[in-house]
Specification:
Length: about 130
């Protein structure tokens, strides 16, 4: 059995304009879990992800907070205990509309490497900062 205490993980700080903290807890290059990538994302008030898509499905579970999921041009309110299944190729974005952090648990199957997941988010933030 592998046990990770999320509160002890430093994670990676993604800068503005897509400010958030991502903590990959399990992945092929994190704890040697080959089957999936499991991460914890924390979006501060007014924080958001970039509008993006993946080549594989993503499961997103809202642990706490509230916000909006923008997906293929639609907006869906989300809150604690809502689960979203994002299809491969579906564009999506998570936006924190609340006054407290929006905490998400995400799963990718098949797995991405943790380093690839972090780098995609960092690259998107850098590109977004240049566009502004």
């Amino acid at each position: 059995m592998k046990i990770v205490k999320a509160w002890e993980e430093k994670g990676v700080e993604i800068p503005a304009p897509y400010r958030r903290t991502i903590k990959v807890l399990f992945a092929p290059d994190k704890e040697g879990v080959e089957e999936l990538l499991f991460s914890h994302a924390i979006l501060p008030p007014n924080g958001c992800t970039d509008y993006h898509r993946h080549d594989r499905p993503e499961l997103i579970y809202v642990v706490s907070g509230k916000g909006v999921c923008v997906h293929d041009g639609q907006e869906t309110p989300v809150q604690e205990d809502v689960a979203l299944w994002v299809l491969a190729g579906e564009q999506h974005q998570m936006i924190n509309t609340g006054d407290v952090p929006l905490k998400l648990a995400t799963v990718f199957v098949p797995a991405y490497k943790a380093s690839d997941n972090y780098n995609r988010c960092l690259d998107a933030a850098e590109a977004g900062a240049v566009k502004r």
